[in-house]
Amino acid sequence: MQLSKRLQALADLVSQDHVLADVGCDHGYIPVFLIQNQRIPKAIAMDIGEGPLKRAQENIRSYGLEGYIETRLSDGLSKLQPGEADTILISGMGGPLMEKILTEGEEAARCADELILQPQSDIPHFRKFLTAMGYAIVQENMIEEDGKYYPMMKAVHRNAQPYSELEYRYGPILLGQRHPVLKQYLERERDNLQMIVENLRKQTGESAKKRLLELEREQQISREAFDYYEGK
Length: 232
What we know:
Layout: H1 5-13, E1 20-23, H2 29-36, E2 43-47, H3 50-62, E3 69-73, E4 87-93, H4 95-104, H5 106-111, E5 114-119, H6 123-132, E6 135-145, E7 148-157, H7 165-170, H8 172-176, H9 180-200, H10 206-229
Parallel strand pairs: 1-2, 1-4, 2-3, 4-5
Antiparallel strand pairs: 5-7, 6-7
Helix pairs in contact: 1-2, 4-6, 9-10
């Protein structure tokens, strides 16, 4: 099976020989790929929707992997027992929903060796949430696919020092490793901010002035990220 860039990057974060719980599995592509390539011994593919779960079941059957991948209709981690999975993968959904899933399924999440997480929104807040929940980010990656940027991370349950605001925003490991895709993202962010600021400077009114101040602060943060990236 050939995975998309995003799914391949997520699969690469899963540790060898771990039992995987894929939450919001959709078609079940990642468990199928990992079983096929003998990366994991078995998996639990979970989804809240009957439609996505049915698609996953059909896909699993088409590859003859019913004996290796169990499917469960589950709202988040509600149908996962503590200790059943070594790795919990949650991806492709908004940060607030992922926070809800991890909060409501806290016991099962804490019993896993690692969490592989790819929030689609509110990413700085999500990193702060992980720290507050007692997780340390131990690995990060970022890929660009079809014009969109996807940061992802591996977290383990152990106390970590709080990160700086810059690290929460852009990722402590992505910054520290000077990740090349992060640099592309920063360049695009810088250019987009500059274009919006130039347009706002032509406008009058209190709302435009207020927004301009907010964006100028965003520009300052972006410059700080470039300085961090370049070791200044």
